[in-house]
Amino acid sequence: MSTKPTNVEEIKKELIAKMPTKVARKRAKSILPGTEVGEPIPEIQSNVRTIPGVITQRGCTYAGCKGVVLGPSRDIVNLTHGPIGCGFYSWLTRRNQTDAGPDGENFIPYAFSTDMTEHDIVFGGEKKLRAAIQEAYDNFHPKAISIFSTCPVGLIGDDIHAVARTMQEELGITIFANSCEGYKGVSQSAGHHIANNQIMKHVIGTKDVEVEGKFKVNMLGEYNIGGDAFEIERILEKCGFTLVATFSGNSTVEDFRKAHAADLNTVMCHRSLNYVAEMMETKYGIPWIKVNFIGAEASAKSLRRMAAYFEDQELIDRTEAVIAEELEKVKTVVDEIKPRTDGKTAMLFVGGSRAHHYQELFKELGMKILGAGYEFAHRDDYEGRHVLPTIKIDADSRNIEELEIHPDPERFKPRKTEEELARLNEKGLDFKGYEGMIGGMGKDAMVIDDINHYETEKLLEIYKPDIFCAGIKEKYIVQKMGIPLKQLHNYDMGGPYAGFNGAINWYRDIDRMVNTKVWNLIKAPWQTDGPELEATYVA
Ligand code: CFM
């Protein structure tokens, strides 16, 4: 680095300086400084195609549909229709945990695939798909089977929906298909939307039962990575909420079926599940609020808003008591650790919600966020949901079906009157609201959408943060540059990090990572004088 850049705009110039003109022009629209609270937020380019040739962090549409949204449900047989690689490489890699459940039906440890080969590509794979569904049924007798198409399936045109329909009639269980070919969208985000649509069409609201409990909620967009959902379940139960269904961490298809019995939808990951929240409101009259259980203070705030919604003094008091008890434990640990982490710096480039949520946990340790960005989020996740009407629909987003949802003639029941909603709104329950990441990050912080590998290395050179958060693709490169990397997708082997106990786990892990001396002791081969590789033959 020749000159020491002083502000975000200068660093941005340096980031794109060596790119071809057209690439630089495109990337410039996805890189901008954060804003102070209340300041107008500039438009950021996001949810557009990655530039061919760069190394992106993104995954494919199939990954978002099968791996992310439906994969964590334990008793649905999630069957990949495609070559074995797609099923194999998405097998048990996301650390979405589950209880075994009272019936012991847990298919998460299995990789179900039709194992398509050249023969199927040439002559069609529908027969094989039918046989695979039959085989899964004979062996496991699951309550539901969900089919996921991979790239070649879309290219050869297998009608997976027709196969699902006929097999559902034949076997008498729920069978539905997702046209989530990897190339269908610009990232995994398209796969989320496709999964949301199919769950809505085929599962949610298919069982009318009385669900016990006074304060019934669903948790949308929580996937139990590293046990996060277990901790959230513990807290909700302690406060007195009844969790009807989680989409989809530690969940069952039965939970999904009766999810319309809840009186409030809470949205953890806005990016992946906001579609279901919206559709359930239209169809059943269930309002939704954005929550965040990453960060102790954020968890407390979310619980307070949830309790406020039900307007029940007993629930409010109990929730306050739980918060007080839990925060006391948290404070002891923060007091011990913060002197060692205060003023340290972090960068986070991950997914479509965590790059925002995890800033809370770093701030609780007194750490400074130098930069953050999502892989595949949309403008609303950056700038706030108020920009939704201004987002232009392009060819890639038009590719994804928009369901037309109407109030259910029997099941639509507004949970609150317009006046009640307005009153609660005044109390801080901004229904359907999400402020996004950029506002409040401050003008010294850098926001980058769909960061690529070149930019990552440049940023590390320039900023030298005390910790960098990303995924497995980045991990070893970052560590070789002497900077610890925390995986924010699978948490490495750590977690849970949600809720109060999760926050404590996080503080301890981050303390160890930013204060270990090991990273300063490493010298990459090219930084030493000796030969890069030495070997002797024994033979
Ligand atoms: Fe939502 Fe997720 Fe995320 Fe996501 Fe993901 Fe994930 Fe993620 Mo990896 S659903 S957007 S598609 S919070 S798998 S549990 S960690 S990129 S930030």
UniProtKB/TrEMBL annotation:
SUPFAM superfamilies: Helical backbone' metal receptor. It catalyses: N2 + 8 reduced [2Fe-2S]-[ferredoxin] + 16 ATP + 16 H2O = H2 + 8 oxidized [2Fe-2S]-[ferredoxin] + 2 NH4(+) + 16 ADP + 16 phosphate + 6 H(+). Residues 60-513 form the Nitrogenase/oxidoreductase component domain. GO terms for molecular function: ATP binding; iron-sulfur cluster binding; metal ion binding; nitrogenase activity. Transmembrane segments: none annotated. It comes from the Bacteria. GO terms for cellular component: molybdenum-iron nitrogenase complex. It is an enzyme of class 1 (oxidoreductase). The keyword Nucleotide-binding applies. Keywords: ATP-binding, Iron, Iron-sulfur, Metal-binding, Molybdenum, Nitrogen fixation, Nucleotide-binding, Oxidoreductase. Its cofactor is [8Fe-7S] cluster; [7Fe-Mo-9S-C-homocitryl] cluster. Its EC number is 1.18.6.1. Tetramer of two alpha and two beta chains. Forms complex with the iron protein (nitrogenase component 2). Belongs to the NifD/NifK/NifE/NifN family. This molybdenum-iron protein is part of the nitrogenase complex that catalyzes the key enzymatic reactions in nitrogen fixation. This is Nitrogenase protein alpha chain. It comes from Solidesulfovibrio carbinolicus. The gene is nifD.
